[in-house]
Design goal:
Layout: E1 6-12, E2 16-22, E3 28-29, E4 43-44, H1 54-66, E5 74-78, H2 89-99, E6 105-109, H3 117-123, E7 128-131, H4 138-145, H5 153-166, E8 170-177, H6 185-198, E9 202-207, H7 222-232, H8 260-270, H9 275-282, H10 286-298, E10 302-306, E11 313-317
Parallel strand pairs: 2-5, 3-4, 5-6, 6-7, 7-8, 8-9
Antiparallel strand pairs: 1-2, 10-11
The structure holds iron/sulfur cluster (SF4).
């Protein structure tokens, strides 16, 4: 048994063991970020549409839960692009809550569509939203995030602030720093002001640790990240901002009808991971994961790279 749109669980520092749902089916986004780990944007669009139908997602979720696997900490909507571009976002969240009422739903978003009241109403059905905002400076935004024509940073920021006033759940903001592009003092000051108004439950400042769609060499400056963290996290209260403690699925009895090779592939399509992370998240034996990865590497389907920060080996799809 394999799944087209459900992947993982993957281990997330912010969400614990998170079962992913891909609402796009391929790389569809209104941004085309230099650092995107998923790859170059294939469909660069602002158009909301049914890229994957709610029925298909519903069926796959039902199949996944029927397997009796250990429950994930979160069900996370994201995948290979911007999930808010799926016009059934709200209905899909409602469906998930019917199938798995005890599991909180998270949405990963670049925040670009929050000026749309309909999108805000739909995303407000989630329990946790993880928006990103790398810069408040238009020139940096154009260079780093490469938005679709017609997207204005000013409007995106206004949309995020309007949405923040409405949303009752948790908000984890992420800022990715690329030295030489968005590390200006002007951006730091602007983001500081934004964070004071936005009042996220958690602010993560991160860097590139893996090669991106256009930036093949990771540009990671730990000192810079720590300095920005100190400043941007200073106004953030500790309001239950930690993800639930990680529940390992190790030791669970997994049904053997699952096609593990496809499960691993589905997970790596959305996120590069180490073999240890894959084993822990999927509850598999590390040796078995390694065996499958070797086979996929031999067939030139996956490739091994090095994480610049941790110097660990991780696997990604060969593109
Ligand atoms: S990083 Fe996110 S917002 Fe940027 S191109 Fe990739 S999926 Fe889209």
């Amino acid at each position: 048994m394999s799944f087209k749109y459900i992947f993982g669980p993957v281990l997330s520092s912010r969400l614990g063991r998170s079962l992913g749902v891909d609402l796009l089916g391929k790389k569809i986004c209104d941004f085309d970020c230099l650092y995107c780990e998923v790859g170059k944007t294939e469909v660069h669009t602002l158009k909301r549409a049914v890229y994957v139908s709610r029925e298909e997602i519903f069926e796959e979720l039902q199949k996944w839960f029927a397997l009796g696997l250990p429950e994930p900490d979160f069900i996370t909507l994201g995948g290979q692009g911007e999930p808010c571009l799926n016009q059934d976002l709200g209905k899909i969240i409602q469906d998930i809550k019917r199938i798995a009422p005890r599991i909180p739903v998270a949405v990963l978003t670049n925040g670009s569509l929050m000026m749309d009241e309909q999108v805000r109403q739909e995303i407000n059905l989630a329990d946790v939203v993880l928006p990103s905002l790398d810069t408040v400076i238009e020139t940096e935004f154009q260079k780093l995030n490469r938005p679709c024509p017609g997207l204005s940073l000013k409007e995106i920021i206004a949309g995020l602030l309007a949405w923040r006033k409405e949303f009752k759940g948790k908000v984890f903001l992420e800022i990715l720093l690329v030295p030489g592009i968005n590390d200006s003092l002007e951006n730091l000051q602007g983001l500081q002001e934004f964070c004071l108004q936005f009042k996220a439950h958690r602010v993560d400042v991160v860097g590139m640790t893996r090669p991106g769609a256009y930036l093949k060499d990771c540009v990671f400056d730990e000192k810079l990240i720590n300095e920005w963290k100190k400043i941007l996290q200073s106004g953030v209260e500790s309001r239950g901002s930690r993800a639930k403690s990680r529940k390992s699925a190790a030791g669970s009895t997994y049904p053997n009808q699952l096609n593990w090779s496809e499960q691993i592939l589905a997970s790596l399509t959305r996120r590069p991971q180490t073999k240890e992370d894959l084993a822990l998240a999927l509850g598999m034996d590390e040796k078995e994961v390694k065996k499958i990865l070797n086979q996929l590497e031999g067939k030139k389907i996956v490739t091994k790279l090095y994480d610049c920060k941790s110097a660990k080996e991780f696997y990604t799809l060969k593109r």
